[in-house]
Amino acid sequence: MTADHTPTAGPIREMFPYLRVRGAPAAIDFYRQAFGATEIFRLAEPGGRVGHAELQFGPVVIMLSDEYPEYGIVGPQSTGGTGAAIHLHVDDVDALTSQAAAAGAEIVREPTDQFYGERSATVRDPFGHEWLLGSHIEDVAPEEMQRRFTAMFDGAADADS
């Protein structure tokens, strides 16, 4: 590290979300049906537990494995929730939300136009992971986005009065 705490190993080249799930084979099937993911490969134990799999979601690879509680590797179903979400940016958020629901996802938030220029929805997959689904609907400058964000909270304060 340098004095300003900049890593000296070079720039990050790629980043892969890595999901831990209970029932990886079923999760892989779900991600295929819900989001059109393509399985690149999987490493499975003779009993079927998946040690590692890679799925292609458009230009992005997401890795996943079954739970391995003996190594502290557990998914949202074991911990009671997730602290992260994955955002998929698509052409038609309404169609993808319907497709995900038909595959077994729970709709947490229906598709709605948002102040930041996206139509977005949230779904929770059967394995506990949340997926933010969005489609671009307008270009919004950062200053305008902040104005709308502030106005949204000002309106909430007025409603509480």
Q: What do you see in this structure?
A:
It is a single chain. It is built from 4 helices and 8 strands. The protein is of the alpha/beta class and 161 residues long. Strand 2 and strand 3 (50-57) form a beta hairpin. The protein has helices spanning 24-35, 76-79, 93-103, 142-160, and strands at 18-21, 38-44, 50-57, 60-66, 85-89, 106-113, 118-124, 130-136. The protein has a 4-stranded mixed β-sheet, with helices on one face. Strands 5-8-7-6 form a 4-stranded mixed β-sheet, covered by helices on one side. Helix 1 runs antiparallel to helix 3. Helices cover 29% and strands 33% of the residues. It has a single domain (18-160), classed as 2,3-Dihydroxybiphenyl 1,2-Dioxygenase, domain 1 (Roll).
CATH superfamily: 2,3-Dihydroxybiphenyl 1,2-Dioxygenase, domain 1
Under the CATH scheme, which class?
A: Alpha Beta
Report how far apart the termini are: 52 Å
Q: In the CATH hierarchy, what is the architecture at level 2?
A: Roll
Task: Find the structural class using helix and strand composition.
Answer: alpha/beta
Largest sheet: 4 strands, mixed
Number of domains: 1
Radius of gyration, in angstroms, nearest whole number = 19 Å
Tell me the strand order in the biggest sheet.
Answer: 1-4-3-2
Reported by name, the CATH topology is: 2,3-Dihydroxybiphenyl 1,2-Dioxygenase, domain 1
Number of helices: 4
Which overall shape is indicated by the principal axes computed on the Cα atoms?
globular
Question: Spans of 5+ residues with little confidence (pLDDT < 50)?
Answer: none
Helix content: 25-40%
The average pLDDT is: 91
What pattern of helices and strands is seen along the backbone?
A: EHEEEHEHEEEH
Tell me the number of strands.
8
How much strand?
Answer: 25-35%
